[in-house]
Structures are given as structure tokens and as C-alpha cells.
TrEMBL record:
GO terms for molecular function: kinase activity. Gene3D superfamilies: 3.30.420.40. Transmembrane segments: none annotated. Belongs to the FGGY kinase family. Residues 4-244 form the Carbohydrate kinase FGGY N-terminal domain. Keywords: ATP-binding, Disulfide bond, Kinase, Nucleotide-binding, Rhamnose metabolism, Transferase. It comes from Paenibacillus glycanilyticus. Residues 254-445 form the Carbohydrate kinase FGGY C-terminal domain. This is L-fuculose kinase. It comes from the Bacteria. Signal peptide: none annotated.
Length: 490
């Protein structure tokens, strides 16, 4: 009996994945899939948090209806977002989604009071305008009544765990992404909190991934007709879970967690908080077993997802596979973008923004969908090469290939082009990286796996890995030179 449940809340959907161990392999089954659409009210963009909690309970019921009472539950989701808890234990309002505009400009504003070096030296975290520190700074400046009444700060998986168990804990991997956690002191950074005027008591003791974090509370057991299932704090930042699931055989490896975001980097034992790391805007996010992820955020498939949405809005209803097929048929290396140009961050008309970028940089403007998608995907592949090389430079390691995990690996053209761009093999799999990493940490906590390396070996044996060898070396080498010039990354 090894049945456990992972809840993975991603940008396109949430999932309840049942995991079991059979004959030395991991078997997974998707029990429940549900939307995770943010809800706009007026100018604000929110999490639909109670609906998600409802869907988590539906996932538990689906397990029950199959005659399964899981031994453990874990929840992961994207980083940086949070809810606030009142003195009576109730949730103060709907958490904001990080793409909400209220934190726009806050990073720059806070940097007028604290230098970037001061913030980076305390946290080791990259500067992203939506980091929790800037969301909280915005709340403070706007005299948020919720912040004024708050007694506890919980990140999204902390919050959903709290609803299930009645216990409030902050989990390490997500805590680091706030840019308020000091990895050197291994605690919340008192000085940063004080500077922002945030009470230290909002922030609780930080649990390591794999720690027990309570049981289903009696009211939930009664409502669902279940027993006291154990709840674990897993690596609750989805990227942390995805990296747990990288089926690496060598201790030193590079990964690309590929979904709405692309997160590319390597796993390290101690954060690298040098001036060079700060200048390159690399991050050191907390992982399982006291590890860190030295990585950079790359805008990822977001630009393609938003393009598709825009085309749909204007009556051209392409599926993703149609778009990828059209891209494959379009001429190569017509035009390039820097996917991380700030113009691509906010939701909206991406095809227009891509065209405008090309116009401004004196390139041919991709008019049809195929050429435009090809421009996005080739540019992503080249940006991966750029960040991979910086990761090697900063970590002092050399990588002989790149592991790709996450839903983005279904885009086989992107996998192949990534191999072409980096001139090294890409090992793609598993696609459900975050959910599998979530399960793996629970099994480690339960003693089913001795450590993360045993978990990774079993993951490697359980899920297919597709190998993409580099092709058309010279053309991609020349293309990279042009990409660097146009994007002024060189
Ligand atoms: C990926 C991710 C990423 C964060 C972003 C907010 O889902 O968690 O690691 O930077 O979302």
C-alpha cells in the first residue's frame, strides 16, 4: 500500500494525481482535472481560492469512490502568491494573482529605498516585479485593510493545507520566492520585514519539504467521510517539485522546467550570491533537502499561449498542435525576439507585440501565424542556450545535455529546436514533473525512498525519456549570432 495524492495547481489547470508504487515503479493516474482560471473583479485579478479548495475535496472524493484512502496528501502551486489570515483564523479576502497590476512599478520604487545589492545580498533572489516583497509593499502603500488586520501570512499551498488541517505552517521552497527569506540565516529576513513595516509575527516557522504538516481535520473527515489522512509539506513551489522529478543520473545536471514559464538552471548545495549572480539576475530558490535552484526565469510558452488566445478572440481558432505544425512549415530564422522583453509580461495582444518588436528592430515582420509562432519558438530555443551558458559560467560546471520536464515537452518541435540551439542532447520527460516531484517527496517522507537520488532513479525507470540529438549545427550556430545581435544580449 503506497497510494498517495498530489494536487498540482498550474496556470492552465489543477490536477489531482494518484500515485502508487508497483514492482519498483511509479504508477500515476489523473483522478481529477479542474480549471484554475483567475477571476477579475474591477481592476483586480484574484485566485478563485475557495473553488480550488472545493476541487481538492472533489479529488479526495474521487479517490474514495475508487475505494482508496490515500496515505498522504501534498499540494504544490506556482510561487509568490499568498493569503492573509485574521485573528479569528479566517481568510482575509481573495488572494491576488501575481499578474495583477497593483504591484506594477513597486520594484523600482522600493529600490529607491533599498539598493538591489542590499536586497539580493539578503535573499539571493532574482528581481521579478511580481515577487511577494513587491506585492506586500504595494499593499502597505495602498494601506490595505486586509494587511492591517492580518495575523498570519500563508502562501497558496500553505493556505490550502491550512483549510485541510487547521494548522498554519510556512513551507521553505515557496518562502524563498517571496524575496523576504534569508538563506544564509535560514529564517525570514528581519531587517527587510522591518523596512517594509511588516510584523515578524505574520511569518511563521518555516517547514522543510517532506515535513509532516498535520492531518485532515475532523470537520473535513466528517464532511468527506474519510479518516485522518496525513498531509505533508512537499516542495510546494511547483518548480521545486519539477526539479525533484528531473530523472538525472549525474549529480551535476542542467534542467529546463518548461510550461507557461521556462525555468532553466542547475541544482546547487549552497546559494551563489555573488555580484555576478546579482548582475545577471539569477536566483537561488530553495529546493528539497536544503538544495537551491540556481536559475533564471524565461518568459516561456506564455507568449504562445497568449497569442493563441488573441487569435481565438479574433475568430481564428487554432489548436496548439496546428500552430506548431504551421511553425514547422514556415521559413526558418525570419525574425527574433527577446522573450524576456518586458512588453511580453502582461496579458494581451501578443501577435501585435511580436510584430512591433520586429518592426522596431528592423527585421522582417512575421505576418502569418506560422512565421510568427516560428519566431517565438526559435527565439525561446536561443534564449535557452543563452541562459544555459550563463548557468555554466556562474556555477563553474559544464553540462553535456539538458533535461526538459513539464507540459512544454509535448511541443516536440521546441524540444528538437532546443537541442539544435544548444548543440547538445535534450532529454525530455516526465511531462507531469511537478506532480511527480510532489509524490516523490511524500514517498521520501514516508521512507519508501531512501533519498532524492533513489527517487530520481525510480522516476527514470518509470517514465519515458525522449532523446533529441542536435541537428543542423551550422545554421543554428549562425542563427544564434543573429539572435544575440538583434536582442542586444551580446
Ligand atoms: C512557475 C512559477 C515560477 C515562478 C512563477 C510565478 O509555475 O512557479 O517558478 O517564478 O511561476
Amino acid at each position: 500500500m503506497s497510494d498517495i495524492l498530489a494536487f498540482d495547481l498550474g496556470a492552465s489547470s489543477g490536477r489531482a494525481i494518484l500515485g502508487s508504487l508497483k514492482d519498483g515503479k511509479i504508477v500515476t493516474e489523473e483522478l481529477h482535472r479542474f480549471p484554475n482560471d483567475p477571476v477579475q473583479t474591477g481592476d483586480r485579478l484574484h485566485w478563485d481560492i475557495l473553488r480550488l479548495y472545493h476541487e481538492i475535496k472533489q479529488g479526495l472524493l474521487k479517490a474514495k469512490h475508487k475505494g482508496i484512502q490515500p496515505l498522504s496528501i501534498g499540494i504544490d502551486s506556482w510561487a509568490v502568491d499568498y493569503g492573509l489570515i485574521a485573528a479569528d483564523g479566517s481568510l482575509l479576502g481573495n488572494p491576488l494573482h501575481y499578474r495583477d497590476r497593483s504591484s506594477a512599478g513597486m520594484m523600482e520604487r522600493l529600490q529607491e529605498e533599498l539598493t538591489p545589492a542590499e536586497i539580493f545580498n539578503r535573499t539571493g533572489i532574482q528581481f521579478l516585479p511580481f515577487n511577494t516583497i513587491y506585492q506586500l509593499y504595494a499593499a502597505k502603500l495602498n494601506q490595505s485593510p486586509q494587511l492591517a488586520a492580518a495575523k498570519r501570512f500563508l502562501m497558496i499551498p500553505d493556505l490550502l493545507r491550512y483549510f485541510l488541517t487547521g494548522e498554519m505552517h510556512n513551507e521553505f521552497s515557496n518562502a524563498t520566492t517571496t524575496q523576504l527569506y534569508n538563506p544564509l540565516k535560514q529564517e525570514w529576513d528581519g531587517e527587510l520585514l522591518q523596512h517594509l513595516g511588516l510584523s515578524q509575527s505574520l511569518f511563521g516557522h518555516v517547514l522543510q519539504p517532506g515535513s509532516p504538516a498535520g492531518n485532515l481535520q475532523p470537520s473535513v473527515q466528517e464532511e468527506l467521510g474519510l479518516g485522518p489522512i496525513a498531509v505533508h509539506a512537499v516542495a510546494e513551489h511547483d518548480t521545486a517539485s519539477a526539479v525533484v522529478a528531473v530523472p538525472a543520473l549525474e549529480r551535476s545536471f542542467a534542467y529546463l522546467s518548461c510550461g507557461t514559464w521556462s525555468l532553466l538552471g542547475t541544482e546547487i548545495q549552497e546559494p551563489i550570491m555573488t555580484a555576478e549572480a546579482a548582475q545577471l539576475n539569477f536566483t537561488n530558490e530553495g529546493g528539497f533537502g536544503g538544495t537551491y535552484r540556481l536559475l533564471k526565469n524565461i518568459m516561456g510558452l506564455w507568449i504562445l499561449q497568449e497569442s493563441r488566445r488573441e487569435w481565438e478572440r479574433s475568430g481564428q481558432d487554432y489548436s496548439f498542435s496546428e500552430l506548431v505544425k504551421l511553425a514547422g512549415e514556415a521559413p526558418a530564422f525570419t525574425a527574433f525576439i527577446d522573450p524576456d522583453d518586458p512588453v511580453f509580461m502582461a496579458p494581451g495582444d501578443m501577435p501585435a507585440r511580436v510584430k512591433e518588436y520586429c518592426r522596431k528592430t528592423n527585421q522582417p515582420v512575421p505576418e502569418d501565424a506560422g512565421t510568427l509562432v516560428r519566431c517565438i519558438l526559435e527565439s525561446l530555443a536561443f534564449k535557452y542556450r543563452y541562459v544555459l551558458e550563463l548557468t555554466e559560467q556562474l556555477s563553474g560546471k559544464q553540462f553535456n545535455g539538458l533535461h526538459m520536464v513539464g507540459g512544454g515537452i509535448h511541443n516536440t518541435l521546441l524540444c528538437q529546436w532546443t537541442a539544435n540551439a544548444i548543440g547538445k542532447p535534450v532529454w525530455a520527460g516526465p511531462a507531469e514533473g511537478s506532480a511527480i516531484g510532489n509524490l516523490a517527496v511524500q514517498w521520501i517522507a514516508r521512507g519508501e525512498f531512501a533519498d532524492i537520488w533513489e527517487a530520481r532513479r525510480v522516476i527514470r525507470d518509470s517514465f519515458p525519456v525522449t532523446i533529441y540529438g542536435p541537428e543542423q549545427g551550422e545554421a543554428w550556430y549562425d542563427g544564434y549570432g543573429r539572435f544575440l545581435e538583434i536582442t542586444t544580449l551580446r
